[in-house]
Protein 1
Amino acid sequence: MAKGVKPRVKVPKSASAGEAITIKTLISHKMESGRRKDGDGNTIPRSIINRFTCAFNGTSILDVTLEPAISTNPYFQFEAVVPEAGEFHFTWYDDDGSVYETKKAVKVA
Amino acid sequence: MTFTRRETLAIGGATLAVATLPGKLMASTSDLIAGVTGGAAASAAGIELTAPEIAENGNTVPVAVSAPGAVAITMLAAGNPTPGVAKFTFGPGSAEQSASTRIRLAGTQDVIAIAEMADGSFAAVHKTVKVTIGGCGG
């Protein structure tokens, strides 16, 4: 598990039914591309998050395949529909097999 | 230091040759698009790519892509050591098929976005981004 990985997600606390909301996600991760070299000229091995998914009550919203060309601390912003009250489920998959998850509940006003 | 006319022309020509060189080394934009669409023609309408004209730091270049009605959007960077950047697959819960993120660019190059529509057709767009400091390490 890469060190200091912390997911941050910004979702409105409440929305009206059927409303489109903007979701912003950021996860602290160094996203080592596998092309950099250390001081001795050895290649630093690749270590990135290779997949990110977001689902609402089990319905898929977004599934992203990440390549090394995604910047350090991968950031995503996208739009989702809130049909009813429920929970957003965010998942990040690391190259080393670790899975980082976070959940956010949304109320329908 | 003074140059004769002949020397000045020679230097100018050499600079031009160096400046045009990276363009030839890059994978061709149309080849990359064809690689994703499987050779099918891609229309230019229906997809929008927002990227800065000049990026000071190639390590984090903010890009946004939007393609109403798309199933998936593939993003490529033609001049990176590996052209793949990301693939966004939109599920039924997405409100509009748009996403923004931050990417790494090794140098001045074309950023390409290819959308696969629900009916199986493709739309592609590309935009040149000038990069002052490359973002892929040495």
Protein 2
Amino acid sequence: MKVVIGVVGNDIHVVANRLIELSLGARGFEVFNLGVNTYLEEFFDAAVETNADVLLISSLNGEAEGWSREVKLLRSKYKTLDKLVMVIGGNLVVGTASAEEIVPKYKKYGFDLVFHQVDLNTGLDALEVYLGERKIS
Amino acid sequence: MSLLQQEREIILSNEHVDNFDFAEVEDFIRNADKNLFISHHFKNKTKMLVQPRGGFPTYKKQFALSEFFVEANVDVLPLTIDSNTRLNDYATAKKMLRLSEENDVDMLNGYPLVTHGYRTTRKMVTHFNKPVSLRHGTPDARLLIETALASGIFDIEGGPITYLLPYSKNFPLDKAFLYWKYVEKICANYSKLNEPINRESFGALTATLVPPAITIVIQLLEMMLSLEEGVKSFSVSFSQTGSMNQDIVMGAVIKKLSRKYADAINCSDAVINLVYHQWMGAFPTNKDYAEQLINMSTVIAAMVGADKIITKTREEASGIPTKEANAKTVANTQYTLRILNGLPNIVDEEEEEILTLEVRAIMEAVLNDSADTLWRKVFNSIKSGIIDVPFSPHIINHNEMITIRDAKKNIRIIKRGNVPIPDRCFEYERGQCDLTKDTTSMVNDIIHDIGIMQ
């Protein structure tokens, strides 16, 4: 299973990004890490280029929200991304807000799975369950 | 006119610089008070020098901060530069400075030195008559350093590796080497006029599980790059690792090897100092705990035998500290240093030997690169992963090395990537760690190891 990962926008927080790469690798995924400071177009381009199954975007400084508003519009411009599973995680708000407020908002932006301040392995467990269920159905 | 002077005239002639007077600046440095030179204080010091961090956008607030520091008995004043200036975006720095001045709200995370200019800043520097250390993070610092030196700031932090690999994703590394070569030349030339200008490397790097061997190699290389341009006073540095023993071992090895490598390139006349950074990783949000951590860092710095310590504040976890909190750390650190007497002499020969072997092996690989100049050798070595900095965001960095903490909290290399760690040392490092765990629990350990002080 191929996953493209990276930190969106002008966010340079690299520590978790490296740990996500290590953890996904350990779980048997083939990981393409775009690193920090990555723009939406670069994510989608990489997903096309690698023929990825999953796009996992992360954010720490919270600026993901500004970017995520453009996800649907941008994705619709690519023809081969219909099956791409979209995941976003990290700290998804500038300031504070609860997961109850944030998760529906991001689902509306076009993400299948949303993890706001969720422990890394809990999030990746949920991703594996989701991918397993999708395969069956 | 020399090529360097031609380049200087280009750098210093633009709309952000108010008529740079080369002859006047040279005269100022030639006749500047010795107290402005940290190299002079290093020569005559009887105790570890204490330096905080700090920068505010407006002249008024920076002046007030410096006053607080002086009252707290500071040895070296800091001048931390805002992020726009660091990225050469002087237009934004100017706009944000104006907004800060008009609204009494800080719109910049530091002092926009180029925007204030050297004539204004020099007034502040000469008023306090203390050495000032420039803290930034700039890959192309040519205009910034010209302005700093003209202002009377004679301690210049940074370097092509240590200001690039932790701070940038894709600024070209080869350009950074050439821009810093300019900085070294300017510092070297001014050093002939009065006391030497001091250059300081930023050994904290990413402050995230960087193994001592990598830190020391980068310190030695930035020192050599600086000395070969004629700099006569250089500070190598590192930050608290999380293990007192590892800090002491690192201090001993870096002192010995920096002298050796300086002598080996015929720079025996250069003075090398050691700077210690209080804990640079994630801080506890509990401010009382933060003070305890800061105090412990001071004790370790004394055990390491540092020549200068750079302090944190009790507000580290919550953002840019107030001048009160910042000055408080300075006073507390001075107090701790004053009462800290009769320190034991601790030597761990086995650890020193292992670390020395590692550093020598990496240095040999770098210096044996076939390129014709030192900066190209270093560039090639970073590109090929002979030098690999854990948790660097830069695309050129290999990110193949993996480090964790052993039971005593020493940072250990468990995967070496392309870094030529000798087999014997690698076995020793791995031998200290529990390697039976699967990667998932290893990742949890790494997360824990990063947040060790919280």
Protein 3
Amino acid sequence: MGSGIAVGHMVAMTGMGDGTGVSLRNPTIVSAFHHQLWIGLVVVLVVAAFTPLAVNVAAPYWTRAQRWVLSASRRLTVSWRPAAIQGSTTGDDEALGRRVLRIGFGLIWLADGLLQLQPAMPMGLADQVTVPSAFGSPAWLQHLVRTGAGIWNDHPVEAAAAAAWIQIAIGIWLLTARRGRISRLGGVVGFGWAAVVWVFGEAMGGVLAPGLSWAFGAPGAVLFYAAAGVLIALPPRLWRGDRLGRMLLMVMGAFLMGMALLQAWPGRGFWRGRGGDISQMVSAMASGAQPRALSSMLQAFAGFDQAHGFVVNLVLVSALAVVGIAFVSGRPGAVRPALWGFIVLCLADWLLVQDLGVLGGLGTDPNSALPQLLLVISGYVAMVLPALPTPADAPLASTSPGARALGKTPSPATVPALAMTSPTAPPTTSGVPIGTSRPALRPRQLPRVLLAGATVCMLALGVVPMTTAALASTPDSVLAAAVDGTPSVLSGQAPSFSLVDQEGHDVSLHDLRGKALLLTFLDPVCTSTCPLIAQQLREASNLLGHDASRVELVAIASNPIFHSVADVEAFTRQEQLGNLPNWLFLTGSLGTLESVWKAYGIEVTVTPAGAMVSHSVVVYVVGPHGNLRWVDPENPTDPFVAAAASSPTAQDLSFSGVLAGNVRSVLSER
Amino acid sequence: MLATATLLLVSIVLAACGPSTSSLPGKPRDAIPSDVAPLASSFATSTASWVDLPMGTSGLNRFWELFSRSSGTGTWALVTPPGVADNGGLVVASTPEVPGVVAGFIPSQYLSSSPLESSADAGRNWEHPAMLAGGLVPGPSSLSLITAGSVLGVATGRAPGSSLGTVNGVAALTTAHGGQVVAGPLTGATWRGISDLADVKASAAGERCRPSRLTGISSTQTGTLLLAATCARAGVIGVLRLSGSTWQLASPAVPATGTGHRLDVLRLARVPGGTAALVSWQTSRSRKLMVAWSEAGGSGWSQTAPLGVPAGSVVDAIGLGPSGTFEVLLTRSANKRRSDISLEVATEATGALRGTWTDLPPPPPGSVAVAGTSRGGALAFTASGTSVEVFALPDGESRWRLSTHMHVKLPYTSST
């Protein structure tokens, strides 16, 4: 067996949305995605580089504007004041609880955004993550999610790049903007985007679907992101004292008690060990791509749960209930041990059930355990280590005449010039007197100004294309380029194999040297796509005319259950391919087939509950010398393909036409 | 960002769809269609109870799910055999004497063959013993286990690697040649065609029955094949027995009310100690149901008196209880209002039928299958979307009680 090849492939994931007929790592799409990201990065760098200059240029105008606002506010006696003025009176300290939230969720958003850069994200997120997350939800929610997924699939490059930029921007924003309205605005932005992701990306965390469980991540990690955004957006005065922390813990406590009740509800499958929901979920997580040690640990836990399912659920229910009650009580003496217990519980759940959230597949968030933990820790810190009230905690902006009389309104001469343009404005005690000609930007402010410019630019790079994509009525043209079957030359030789054909004869890749191959992977008992692909291969052979004698049509079984010689022979008979002299449907032992699948980058998954096996759908074109090309098939069930196949003028555009053209290309190679 | 969300929301157009109802309009007697045997079924093996029912919506988003309840555990588990889309339907062959079952997939979309899978442990693990080149006839009786003897020398001895117990082979009824009986061992590809519709028509039994279609296959305890057919000749019940290489009519007696009517065999199956058939016919005033039972298989039938149910009633599911009972779920469609009826009749392994039909209380709305229990009670299964609920009716009680709720993560759109 040759070394594995890293090629793209379309996973015909059953039950995963409409599908676009484009592989997860289609080179055209991946290339366009990388191109988009690189362009975006250059724009971000340029904008960031020019931001200090822009700040200095704009500073005089900005200070004039601030002065105008101040004078206007005096005239109108309104309560609004610029952030810089507010900042100058609210002190320099950020409440510790808020800081925990801001930095914690800033890091999570940043990691989430960076994971959005995976090459498979444009073609994979909608069909493999968002649409499946809606299974079991009400029809209207599934419809909603599918609509969002459709928009994503129609504009995969723009959408994926936009999502990445937005999330990276939110992360940087939260990490760098410590206080003031700009910092709070970061919370609002985080909340807004989290709400979008929660609905369209997580199908509301499955809260409307059966099987809801705290252990599995309900009600969705992103809902906690949204909650954190709201908390970060709250006025600083609300973070003073222990009230907010206590309330946060009480809300989380009530939530955990509700989750405990759901977990304990009879007949929901959690009390069962063997065949129960928990062991099944853990087993499923263990089967994902991950380090062996982690997989072994999950399998061990699944085995333990199968044997002691009742006990495991009892412990979980009890822990959730006890922790919830302690949090609701609001008593530090009760909350402290409960917090430690909750940390252990969350980490255990994160490790043993949620499988760290991001391993394998296209997951980007760490699931719900860590975000919950951050919220609770933040609440606890806010409760036991409250920030002391400051004079500025009097009603904001002196809404009462008394407050104004106490001198809360600052002198216009001390308004800092930069504070409104930078999310990282320095303490305003060092403000520059308005009207002076000194540059507004000082060297130590430069890094933050650069980051501020970059953040704003990244947000724009996210929001604008995303909005454009949502409004566009036609799919992106890059999809057409991706599905037209343009062959991509791969370096290296086709991985070797040694299998048997539908008549039981041994066939190896070596035996087929000297002929071009159209090599694909088919499920002998597939009910939809595979028979169509087989017929497309036959049609390609017909289109080749005399050249067909120099081509072998090779299918390799891709069903781990149905892969006997009888199975591939039955498929051959069903599709009436037995009379084709160049048709080979190859199979072998499961171990041998798995090696071939791996070498050719084919993913095969057995999906339960009456679904056909899902597998990668790709056709390779192998030259007579074993040089490998591949063609990413368009969806043969697409009406356009069917129409093209029946129209001589459009035949060259059909899938079979593209295959035939690619074969001619490799046959002409020396 | 928020604008994006708003735009996404605004772009949603919710498709309105509502449940459709249908009624069977009154038709002339000759135009009354043959009853189609329902696929939804329940049955029992020596170690477990099973139910095979439809879930999801319709078409390619309808999935047939198989549940089993082992005698030891007492809890239902989803055990649908994996690896094949089962939108077309799932047929399961079993007998009360052995623990193993063989499941066959009814072809759908582009698949024209019927993959088979077998399990010896109540569905926890499945093997793939064979591929049936011809597609199974859609019906609960199109697949049967042969537990003794041989069929024209084909099914002999225990198949290598088989862990199903004393199962010698499988007989199946396929759609090839207008209906073909095939038999084979559990493993390997040596299936052999026994007869097709033309053969049956040409036999002596065929001349009396004039079969229009073959609807089911079964075997007796001694390995004799029995065939169910819809006879075009009125007043003949299409149960045929393979004797040597020819078919003989082996029907139960036709009751007076069945004379002159076309009689459909909805289920032909092994029950404890014998073979039983559920026969149905439609008169101008009502639908009649009758269960016949034979210890010898094809001779010496005992039978219930015909039971009249409202005209237009459709048999939705048939259950074979572990103690030899038949449970029948009917839907009555009248004036566009549906009401469900469930019935039960008991057979006895020791001799003649106890022979009385029992009206069970109206099953819970949305029932799709019924089953008997070893304690004399009954179960009703409702399916709605991804949820299945099991209602129990203890023996002697008059109220269904919810006993189990299950959620199945249906692979919607997986077959599109």
